[in-house]
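testing teh design pipeline on a random one, pls ignore if ur not involved
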């Protein structure tokens, strides 16, 4: 391969040589059909064209081009057609060349933020002759947190020089006032034209966005996502992928190909959401109906249980959960959960053990209570369970007399706590049941251990039978009107615990009666 072919070709800028070969009449005829913005670009291609188009003799070309712009007001008397086209269509700062969209119509300038500070002055700081007479155009702007009228510095200096050089200052001021009102009318019309043009631009952008939005949904429907769009509504998808709908660019196949991987992730999330909101709740409702029949109308081969899970727990057992989360097209006719109910006995035992363990963790007996003579004052009564090992005590913790639970001033023992309390239920996997405290809305009755200790037994080992055999009598020592100096057994004390004041130990509130006083005229 020749070495020359490996060299990178230089990109040469095209020269408008063909324009110079044209007759000027033909050139002007072509220029008349150009937009003023294109005419500006053409005048800046080379020095020769610039001199030709910026010459005063070419004004008719610019005027013809301007008339092609719908609604654009005529050129103000103090501007040339070329300057007017530059002001309206060249979106660059007149000082530094930065891109600027906003036109300061009344002072007929485009300034960036920095150049505004340098080239505009507050009207209040101008000469009195300017403040007292409407002779200079002003712009209402907010610059450096100052919202007031501003004057162009160059226009102010030019006016002051002309005013100082004039012989008839009154006539000069009258002429400038007329010029001010004339320019203001022109610029007000230009400002209205620009506002309408901006509104039209926004309408076009909104129309393009609507077309793009419609194209996106049509493509999604082609991929089979029509039912999901109807279920959730188009606004849900628009908020999920805002950048796709915010753009006004045409949605081509290439652009769609770049967006498609992200759409797959979004549509999968909507699919899962629809299953959780629409499909799974219907299947859980079917499960509730079947479970009710399973419990109330058992067959001959249905095993019996002393305690069964609620339907909210049944729905979370693996065989039932698998059926609930089967594909949407899976038929649910007849008894879809029959196979899962056949496996229910294998799961009930584990479920019961889990609940027992959670309840056991709630039973927290204060460490200060033990069966030692020192702590109980020598009143500990031996029981059949007193010699139990620590491991056996842990396994039978729910059988202790102090294993009591409260809900709304009601007291429940084990296992009545499961049947007497209202269970938390939910039809949604997004709301897990959580710990047993949240399931039953219960709390451990901390006072029970104190009451058992006052009766002379160790709450770590004493059972209900031990307390009944002890048959202790207690009297309220608290000097309060509600106590009435009553004598109670341990069950009455538990039932009336809310009448006792809060104290670190019920030893301060309750006193154990001597055996000789237990039958003292109370019918016990």
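output:
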């Amino acid at each position: 391969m020749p070495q020359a072919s490996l060299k990178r070709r230089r990109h040469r800028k095209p020269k408008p040589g063909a324009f110079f070969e044209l007759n000027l009449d033909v050139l002007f005829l072509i220029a008349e059909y150009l937009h003023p913005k294109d005419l500006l670009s053409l005048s800046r291609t080379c020095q020769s064209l610039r001199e030709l188009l910026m010459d005063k003799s070419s004004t008719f070309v610019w005027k013809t081009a301007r008339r092609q712009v719908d609604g654009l007001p005529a050129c103000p008397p103090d501007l040339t057609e070329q300057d007017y086209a530059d002001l309206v269509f060249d979106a660059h700062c007149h000082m530094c060349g930065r891109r600027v969209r906003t036109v300061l119509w009344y002072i007929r300038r485009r300034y960036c933020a920095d150049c505004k500070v340098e080239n505009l002055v507050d009207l209040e700081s101008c000469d009195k002759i300017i403040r007292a007479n409407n002779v200079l155009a002003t712009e209402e702007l907010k610059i450096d947190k100052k919202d007031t009228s501003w004057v162009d510095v160059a226009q102010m200096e030019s006016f002051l020089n002309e005013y100082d050089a004039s012989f008839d200052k009154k006539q000069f001021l009258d002429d400038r006032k007329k010029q001010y009102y004339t320019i203001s009318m022109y610029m007000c019309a230009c400002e209205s034209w620009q506002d309408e043009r901006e509104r039209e631009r926004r309408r076009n952008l909104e129309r393009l966005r609507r077309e793009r939005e419609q194209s996106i949904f049509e493509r999604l429907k082609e991929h089979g996502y029509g039912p999901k769009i109807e279920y959730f509504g188009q606004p849900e998808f628009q908020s999920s992928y805002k950048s796709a709908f915010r753009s006004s660019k045409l949605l081509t196949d290439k652009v769609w190909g770049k967006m498609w991987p992200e759409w797959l992730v979004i549509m999968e999330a909507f699919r899962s959401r629809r299953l959780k909101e629409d499909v799974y709740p219907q299947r859980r409702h079917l499960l509730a109906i079947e479970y009710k029949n399973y419990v109330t109308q058992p067959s001959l081969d249905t095993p019996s249980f002393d305690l069964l899970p609620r339907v909210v727990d049944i729905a979370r057992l693996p065989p039932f959960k698998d059926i609930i989360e089967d594909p949407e097209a899976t038929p649910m006719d007849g008894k879809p959960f029959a196979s899962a109910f056949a496996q229910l006995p294998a799961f009930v035992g584990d479920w019961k053990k889990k609940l027992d363990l959670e309840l056991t963790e709630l039973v927290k007996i204060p460490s200060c209570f033990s069966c030692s003579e020192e702590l109980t004052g020598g009143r500990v009564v031996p029981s059949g369970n007193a010699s139990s090992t620590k491991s056996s005590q842990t396994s039978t913790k729910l059988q202790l007399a102090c294993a009591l639970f409260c809900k709304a001033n009601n007291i429940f023992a084990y296992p009545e706590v499961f049947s007497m309390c209202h269970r938390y239920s939910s039809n949604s996997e997004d709301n897990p049941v959580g710990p047993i405290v949240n399931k039953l809305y219960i709390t451990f009755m901390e006072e029970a251990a104190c009451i058992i200790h006052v009766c002379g037994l160790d709450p770590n080992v004493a059972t209900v039978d031990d307390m009944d055999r002890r048959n202790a009598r207690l009297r309220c020592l608290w000097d309060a009107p509600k106590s009435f100096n009553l004598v109670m057994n341990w069950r009455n004390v538990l039932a009336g615990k809310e009448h006792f004041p809060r104290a670190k130990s019920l030893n301060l509130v309750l006193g154990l009666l001597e055996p000789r006083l237990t039958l003292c005229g109370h019918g016990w």
